[in-house]
Amino acid sequence: MIKKIFLYFYKKMINFFSDKAKISLQPKSPVDIHYEELAKDCYNHFKEHFKKSYVFSDDESIRGFAINEAIKKRDDGDLFIEFGVWKALSLNFFAEKLNKSNAIIYGFDSFIGLKDDWMSSVFMPKGTFNLNKKLPNVKKNAKLIDGWIENTLPNFLDGKKDKIVFIHFDMDTYNSTAFAIKTMKPFLKKGTIILFDQLHSYPHWRESEFKALNDTLNESEYKFIAFGTRQACIEIL
Description:
By secondary structure, the protein is an alpha/beta fold. The chain has two domains: 1-51, no CATH class; 54-236, Rossmann fold (3-Layer(aba) Sandwich). It has seven helices and ten strands. The strands form two sheets. An eight-stranded mixed beta sheet has the order 1-9-10-8-7-2-3-6, sandwiched between helices. A two-stranded antiparallel ribbon has the order 4-5. A hairpin with a 3-residue loop joins strand 4 and strand 5 (123-124). The relative contact order is 0.16.
């Protein structure tokens, strides 16, 4: 009986490792090679910045680092802002970190999804992330600003003298991100922390947040201080 059981599991193991070997011998597809080349391209582009920056492997770590750096550089009245709230997971994360500082974070979103198509590793058409105007639950020190930023952001900043110390961009697309940076540029200060959620390491990454950054800020105006799997964090000089 014991011998039969042993032979049964022995055959199972042989079949398992045979299947694994077959899988490993499968030739790479063009898509596999493309993604390998994409990773190399991103690494080579940011290689020198990686050497001088913190590098994180998960979203929470780089978000925690970014908001902590902003808190350290905060002056009284400085503003904390997020663009692209959706279900408020990151907004509430930042709000919780800011609670001890008695600071408010403002979250901008239309709550009807992306304004433009966005090409990532998957196709996200206009309207993706649509909540049908249902606002998410947020912490007491998080304030939602509902509407397209082309309308809400100028109104929000009108008459304000306060500087912006922290921005989290998670709108994904070029047009919205570029508009926000251009509009807020006069309100940035030395030490402002800007966290981009989708700056690199996916197909067409050069055409979205990365392009918005390059088209609105000169390289002499900021430095990279941290990277995540797709995120990048900069500090205004």
